[in-house]
């Protein structure tokens, strides 16, 4: 915003401005509003768009507990499914790992599509009088190093607005305004796992009663239930090839091959509702606090979807940030805000480590495992799987990390 635009801009304010209405922003907004904090959510997309964006589906038990604690888990309990088994299919056959009966007391995932969670959180927030502006794009966070930061926005009618606050929560994902506004001291630690997925959403019931991980010399294939009628599939994919390069028939044939349907039973085929390309890259911003600006969710750290951790971290961070902001604004106690970054980074790095381990477990080297140079990679992967199949301690470790954040 230029000087003259700035002086013509509409002026609005709230004690806390939350950028983004994904899982992180909506949990944070709900908790702040319930605590009586003056807050507003600014969301670039329309309400319909955020309520229909299909992404995550596997929610950790701790995410269920957080939502329960704050009366936000009704939909999850009414419509969600439970999942406690994964099935690995390899050249050596298949084995099932009942992770739901291992680890600390045996814990299962909730299977609940992210768009349903977002819809529940939004309905709850609006039903209690929470303030949100859709189609309002945050352009930049300014003066975050002072006590009166502000956010410049473009309103639905195109008018510039200046939102003043005491604190700004950047929950606007990896390409949001919060990340763009970080001071030069912020470090982005980035890693490319070198793997690409074609993500598919099929109008078809799940084909197995477990998360399916198939390891094949042409690449990984994955199967994840979403609802009784919709299933997510993934194919390891050559980077640079567009998502629509293959007709549906070829995709199903390839899924059949890699999932070894001839040996273990057919896949339920159906229309492919969505295709997307995902490069398995990840990053972490350090620290997560820059003066009055705090990052949470994908804005704080991006995880490759191989271990289904992103939404779970987003909800965990939102709860921590809500508590810390409430203490600061109601009691003047800023200790929670001072701790926020270190607390979250400990969880983030643990999730990144496990995600990296899963990524190496599941994938052939880009280009396939057949060339001689990849033999070493393939042998390590096979040995890792053999250990997971046979070692109870390894299975316990897997279960704890797989369901935990
Ligand atoms: P979101 O959900 O991206 O929401 C950010 C919101 O900010 C808005 N926004 C802006 N608003 C205002 N001004 C701007 N300048 C803005 N820029 C952006 C956006 O419109 C959006 O509404 O981030 P949040 O809240 O941090 O939540 C993160 C999760 O969405 C993400 O980590 C997960 O979806 C990752 N993930 C999974 N996580 C799990 O825990 N379990 C899973 O099973 C799982 N499966 C997945 C996944 C991610 C996937 N993709 C998309 C790679 C499966 C897939 C295919």
Automatic annotation (TrEMBL):
Enzyme Commission designation: 1.14.13.2
Statement: the UniProt record of this protein carries the keyword Oxidoreductase: yes
Pfam families: FAD_binding_3
Keywords on record: FAD, Flavoprotein, Oxidoreductase
Uppermost EC category: oxidoreductase
Stored Gene3D superfamilies: D-Amino Acid Oxidase, subunit A, domain 2, FAD/NAD(P)-binding domain
Keyword Calcium: no
FAD-binding domain segment(s): 14-354
Origin superkingdom: Bacteria
Gene Ontology MF, one: FAD binding
InterPro entries (alphabetical): FAD-bd, FAD/NAD-bd_sf, RIFMO-like
UniProt name for this protein: 4-hydroxybenzoate 3-monooxygenase
Organism this protein belongs to: Streptomyces sp. R33
